[in-house]
Specification:
The protein is an alpha+beta fold. The chain contains 23 helices and 20 strands. Strands 3-12-11-20-19-14-15 form a 7-stranded mixed sheet.
Length: 692
């Protein structure tokens, strides 16, 4: 990052996304100095009046360089400025890919900022924020600048609408920001307790969970320049990240006495789950449409989306046939084997249908079109001019119960491939000379017996100011309630019986022991519900070693504070070590959702740990500077590097086990480098304020 002004300019371009670029930002303290040519046709006739209005009285003025050649944005007109933007829509994907390319082609940081400022008022605001965020993440001169959390840019996608009326009223009446009341976001506002699926609202509608889904798609765009789409093991990550979400969701269902989800494997059957999200789109002030109980998917015939359900069924048949044959066919007719190493990566790109799919015309666009079919089922022909539902938007899709049923079906396709692979053998699973003697979890800030974890509800704040366009200045906080757990640590005793230090990877998973009825799960079921908690490298000295790993260091999560702290040069630490901590991807599962809710009476889980041999784990990394972004490598990889684990994602639970291994207990008794411990998760139905 070259200078203060550029840092400030990047920060301000995230601010108030619906306001014109010339308006005051940063609580009225900063403004852009625009070349005359940057005013779009809506404001070109009154630019002198605008210039005088926003001319003086600002602490920071940021001059923008004129562009020697203005980008041709006619391609973006197909997406209206007040239309909803969807990453599942092929037309929108192609528009986004071209705009990202324009941003990446800017030769330096100054011209990148100018290009973004010129484009901002000429394209769809949500399209702009997505493409701007992707470009900031992937340009060499801006990639360490933190992305503003999407909940602060477009809070309407996450927060019940009445909150904004209260927030605006509070800011108008109380001019002193320090004494403004924090507006409470209501709990369980989308359905009553007569709807059993509402028991999972704390999971589905969690702000951090939905922000994670958005940010993952920023890091892994499906369309755009090849160098930002073609990331190491991208297709496999698509599979694994969603697989882990499903494992967590199913486990949460057991915690709430609900059966595991039923995959949406019949596209002709009614969708029994209704959903009415009660959130608004800030682009057009319309609520996201609801879906009635027993809606049926039908063919879609809209201006930018056309789909026949029979096409989806045909694509599914072709993908399943390819899995059963053990190979896929590319556009040249070449047969490419679905081998244990690369098969899942190929399938991930095919199923998601990114620009990396080897034969999109034949295998189709099953994942994205499934989202589209569901999101338009309330108005498939645009007869009532309704936009798509929450299933059409990556920031909101995880709120809907049918998201998990649809992805449950997608996951069953991947699992069909995984079931065909040979089980891991002794060489794959053992680590000669390593004996794990004990495995425990201990709370670090509360009192409870060993191997007992505690969950509860917590109140936290989010600043809505950046997303309240044409509204009051100053900080405006909303308070919301989310699941939280008492912090804990893993304590592992492991012996190295060799006479030299050895390196390995410690892998920790949590598996539910029983379903909603208390019926014990078999090993194959536990395998598919295994929740990855952490993965980290260890060096074992000869003799007995004690490993202490804090839950906050998980390779799966990012701390909540990191996701919701303010960005910009004024908020960045001056100390270099603290600055390295501050600069992060933002991609990762929210830390407060690391472990399942459990039950009030306590719920038993199997805690599994193993240490695998580094000889099979190690990855020879690319010769690039050390990344400042190492959070959540299990779900998000490492920025600008290869995925940091040579094993298949989810190892050792990504494949079926042999018939000689009937249970997790038997598995850990067979291999000395593994350990199994029974733990209890207790839920306490109290709400506490987050510690400042």
């Amino acid at each position: 990052m070259s200078n203060f002004n550029n840092k400030k300019a990047l920060e301000l371009l995230f601010d108030r996304p619906l306001e014109p670029v010339f308006t005051a930002r940063d609580d009225g303290k900063a403004v852009f100095d625009l070349p005359e040519s940057f005013y779009n046709e809506q404001y070109s006739d009154v630019k002198d009046d605008i210039g005088s209005r926003f001319g003086d009285g600002f602490d920071v003025r940021i001059p923008l360089r004129d562009l020697p050649q203005k980008p041709d944005l006619r391609f973006a007109r197909r997406l209206g400025k007040r239309s909803q933007f969807s990453l599942f829509n092929r037309v929108h994907q192609e528009i986004a890919g071209r705009l990202i390319q324009i941003f990446l082609d800017a030769p330096n940081e100054d011209l990148f900022i100018s290009t973004c400022a010129y484009c901002k008022d000429r394209v769809n605001p949500f399209l702009f924020q997505y493409c701007f965020s992707v470009a900031v993440q992937h340009r060499a001169d801006t990639k360490n600048f933190p992305i503003k959390p999407i909940v602060e840019t477009f809070p309407q996608n996450f927060v019940e609408p009445s909150v904004f009326k209260e927030a605006r009223a509070e800011s108008e009446v109380v001019t002193d920001q320090g004494t403004r009341r924090h507006i409470e976001i209501p709990r369980n506002y989308t359905a009553s307790d007569r709807e059993k699926e509402q028991r999972l609202a704390y999971f589905r509608e969690d702000i951090g969970v939905n922000s994670h889904h958005w940010h993952w798609h920023l890091v892994y765009p499906g369309f755009g320049p090849l160098n930002i789409v073609k990331k190491d093991r991208r297709g496999e990550l698509f599979y694994y990240m969603h697989h882990q979400i499903l494992a967590r969701y199913n486990t949460e269902r057991f915690c709430n006495n609900l059966a595991k989800l039923r995959p949406l494997n019949n596209l002709r059957a009614p969708i029994v789950e209704g959903y009415f999200p009660k959130i608004m789109s800030s682009l057009n002030n319309r609520t996201y449409p609801g879906r009635n109980v027993d809606n049926v998917l039908t063919d879609i015939d809209r201006d930018d989306t056309r789909l026949e359900i029979s096409d989806m069924e045909r694509w599914i048949d072709r993908i399943i046939a390819a899995i059963d044959k053990g190979y896929v066919t590319d556009m040249d007719g070449k047969e490419i084997p679905l081998d244990p190493k690369n098969g899942i990566d190929l399938l991930g790109d095919i199923v998601e249908c990114t620009s990396l799919s080897i034969n999109p015309d034949y295998y189709g666009n099953i994942h994205n079109q499934g989202h589209n079919a569901i999101s338009y089922c309330h108005d498939p022909e645009a007869r009532f001019l309704e936009d798509f539902s929450v299933m059409g938007d990556v920031t909101t899709a995880m709120r809907d119960p049918v998201f998990y049923r649809w992805h449950g079906f997608i996951d069953s396709i991947f699992n069909r491939h995984k079931e065909r692979l040979n089980p891991y053998n002794e060489t794959d699973l053992s680590f000669n000379g390593v004996v794990m003697n004990s495995l425990e979890v201990v709370l670090t800030s509360a009192t409870a017996p060993t191997n007992n974890l505690l969950t509860f509800l917590e109140r936290s704040d989010v600043n809505l100011a950046a997303g309240l366009d044409f509204g009051p200045r100053g900080n405006i906080y909303a308070t919301f309630t989310h699941l939280q757990h008492a912090p804990f640590k893993y304590v592992i005793e492991v012996a190295n019986n060799r006479n030299k230090p050895i390196k390995g990877t410690c892998r920790i998973f949590l598996c539910p022991q029983s379903d909603e009825r208390g019926t014990p799960l078999n090993l194959n079921e536990q395998r598919q519900f295994a929740i990855e908690l952490d993965k980290f490298k260890v060096t074992l000295e000869p003799g007995v070693n004690f490993i202490h790993q804090l839950s906050s260091k998980s390779s799966v999560t990012i701390p909540y504070e990191r996701s919701f702290r303010p960005i910009g040069p004024n908020n960045q630490p001056k100390d270099q070590e603290e600055l390295r901590e501050f600069q992060f991807c933002g991609c990762g599962w929210p830390e407060h959702m690391l472990i399942p809710k459990g039950k009030a009476e306590g719920m038993h889980f199997d805690l599994f740990a193993m240490i695998s041999d580094m000889a099979g784990d190690a990855v020879e990394q690319l010769d690039v500077p050390e990344s400042l972004c190492n959070d959540s490598s299990s779900f998000c990889g490492l920025k600008d590097k290869l995925y940091p684990d040579n094993r298949s994602m989810g190892y050792p639970f990504d494949r079926r086990f042999t018939r000689e291994t009937p249970s997790l207990q038997k598995l850990t008794e067979t291999f000395s480098n593994m350990k199994l411990t029974d733990i209890i998760i207790k839920y306490n139905d109290v709400v506490v304020d987050k510690k400042k």
